[in-house]
Write the structure tokens for this entry.
Amino acid sequence: MRICFVLVALLLFLAAFDAPAARAGEGLEVYGASTLEYVNPGAYKPAGKPSEPVRMVAVRSGIHAAQLVAVSGGPIKGLKAAVGDLKGPGTIPGSAWKVAYGVADGVPPKAGESGFFDSLEPEPPAEVPAGKSGQAVQSIWLKLYVPADAKPGDYAGEVAVSAEGGSAKVPVSVKVFDWVMPDPKTWTAHFDAIQSPESVAMAYDVEPWSDKHLALLDKTFAILGEMGQKTLYVTAVRRTHFGNENAVVRWTKDDKDQLQPDFTNVEKYLDVATKHLGKIPGVIFYCWEPVESMGHAGGAGSAGRTTDRPLQYTLWDPKSGEMKKRTGPAWGSAESKDLWKRFNEGLKPVLAKRGLTDSKLFGLIGDARPTKLTMDDICSGAENPRWAVHSHFYCPEWQGHKIGMAIALWGIHMNICDPKQGRGFGWNTDFWLAYYPREFEMNSALVEHRFKMEMWMGALSLFELGQSGRSRFACGLGRIGCDFWKVVKDDRGRVRATLAGYYPESYWGQLNLNYCISSILGKGKTGAVPTIRSEAFREGSQDEEARVFVEKAIELKPFREKLGEELAGKLRETLDERIRMVNRWGGAGNDQKTGKLAEAPLDVLASNAKLYAAAEEVAKKLGVMRIEESAGEIHSLPKKEKKK
């Protein structure tokens, strides 16, 4: 009996020692949290003190985020957060803020446990329940849309958080630097998230391409528009590895029983996308799939992996609305060439109307690749045809056809290294070469999401640099699933799988989207919503744009001369310090030349303050907020040797 008493007392003591701070009472307490921190409601322990100030650094026209965590010793009802005006050299109105509330739909650490807050809903939950420990936890995100005309300087205000059990006020301080962030439509970094219109229709049970469907897609592209999205994928064949039963491009028969492409849904899709993305650099028409796509990258492009599947298309009857599954004419036949010629001729005015003529790419080439016969057919009647590649391997051309976009994994043949060994300049390339971060998972570290784009924009080929003094550079990230949510149900009606790789013949082996990030956006109550992962990607691309501005001024001769060598050298040291932090925490693992990365503290706030201050100084010195030039002799690279 005495032993039992002692054990119970000990357990009570340990529970009290490990209990979260808010368990002492039913009142509401609010803590600050890094935007690079996953908050799991079942395991959250405050790292700081209640109501500590929120500190942010920002630029004009930038979008900057902060995270708070509301905690109570019981259920939280009636939660609401609001940010007032910021006062400083001028006023940044409270309307410049957007508040969102986390949904605990992130990947749980173990089966049966709660997931981390990931999706960000614009409305608070009616009630935040208490967990097993009796503690209720709710993540709150604050996004500041700094006005373009905001006066630079230090601002102060507060965020008020209230609920039925109490309230708290948290001081907010924001330092705005005098540099204007360009519109995401014009960002240098190429972000490629693959959007799935079929997944959206299935997730919300709406008729594909109906007004309701388009309204949902509008929400998706509004988020992608803030992220600097650069691509749109339009299926022209059925049963691709995107899991589409039918294609966006449909075919009808005219009065002569001849197949004609119907671009009705294509036009709807382009309109809703360009509304938010502007002139999309890459509109990929998915026209080809291999016979079999399983396996690893070995032998990509070899005779055994260069095969064509018969054309699978959707035949649509405009009168009845019926859609039928059909197989097209044989590749290489006159009928096939005529069919694709009609496709390209019909598509030409559709793209020209929206200023997208030069954005057209054919796809999609993977580790298994098409024959020249088929590529020639698909390009019939097309002007300056180019193709898109998603593969383990970097591919500059195939079967005599130009490649306009290549997204590669380890076959990209580029290196992450210390600035002493070499620097990459992703803005100084005329070829769309991007890195596929397949090492990512749906719960990979947020700091890697934040730095991955910037890290690879600074990558280079050490081999090419050593051989010729020149190098290839990567201009972005790609092959990231946008909204391939779990929408496929089993025979008992339970949602089990995504559409990615749904058809066995189109699984795409180790390039399956489910092996990486299948959905960077959240499936919200009324449409797609941002996630804390998409916010990390967004701010990472935004930071990269500031770095590009400073780097162009340092590295391109005309601007460097205006800065002067002393200032240029100082700014280069600032960027090199940042590169070391980005490489150390962005998931590089090691320096690919020396084998060891330089130690660098993780302090995003301080690093961004230095970066934005550098952009401010360059803007003041040059008298411009943006440098359009993206080519020229780079100061940091060895000069080309003159031919004798």
About this structure: The radius of gyration is 27 Å.
